[in-house]
Specification:
Elements lengths: L9 H7 L3 H12 L9 H21 L3 H14 L5 H13 L3 H14 L6 H11 L3 H13 L5 H14 L6 H4 L7 H8 L1
Helix pairs in contact: 1-2, 2-3, 3-4, 3-5, 4-5, 5-6, 6-7, 7-8, 8-9
């Protein structure tokens, strides 16, 4: 069962096609509409949360970090339990707004919501890598694999891929030299 907005429709289509201004105008128009009285409170909250999420995605696409932060926070305020997309969006917007400490806190919260999510340090490494800051990316990858917690194996593999991508294949063997903690990790390591 989805939510009333379910992120479908013209606003979502415009986001998928990265037509940020059009998507935002759809979201702003939808915000003015009254929700049907026959919807229960949970359904209305889910719709409101999705609307704020859509606005956050639009502001992100337009590189309006502060507006994106506000929209994602509003989405989380309406529906905080298990709101993975808004948590990720808020973390990324905070990072791009030069608030890495706050971003890391959101990625830690994401890991609490979904233990299968990447380690927060791995996410920070990826964001620094996207910005072209290889030194910080490597530092964050090394922090992630040093944790020795469940979920560190994918971080180790992502770091190995990152090293290969950054033309440092000689260092990969040392990263992958330990015994994987699961059969799935062993298959991935062999790949």
């Amino acid at each position: 069962v989805g939510t009333p907005m379910d992120m479908d429709g013209p606003g979502r289509l415009a986001v998928d096609e990265q037509r940020w201004f059009e998507a935002l105008s759809h979201a702003q128009a939808a915000e003015k509409l009254a929700l049907p009285d026959e919807w229960d409170m949970g359904y209305k909250q889910a719709a409101q949360s999705d609307l704020y999420l859509l606005k956050g995605m639009c502001y992100d696409g337009r590189s309006e970090c502060q507006a994106a932060i506000t929209a994602y926070q509003a989405s989380l305020q309406v529906e905080s339990k298990g709101n993975i997309r808004a948590t990720i969006g808020l973390g990324c917007a905070l990072f791009h707004n030069s608030q890495p400490t706050e971003a890391l806190e959101q990625f830690r919260r994401l890991r609490e919501i979904d233990p299968r999510a990447d380690l927060p340090e791995t996410t920070m490494a990826a964001l620094y890598d996207q910005q072209g800051d290889a030194v910080e990316a490597e530092n964050w990858f090394r922090m992630a694999i040093a944790l020795q917690v469940p979920g560190a194996e994918p971080a180790r593999l992502k770091f190995a891929r990152w090293l290969i991508w950054n033309n440092r294949p000689a260092e990969v063997a040392s990263i992958l030299s330990h015994k994987p903690s699961s059969p799935e990790a062993e298959r991935e390591r062999q790949f």
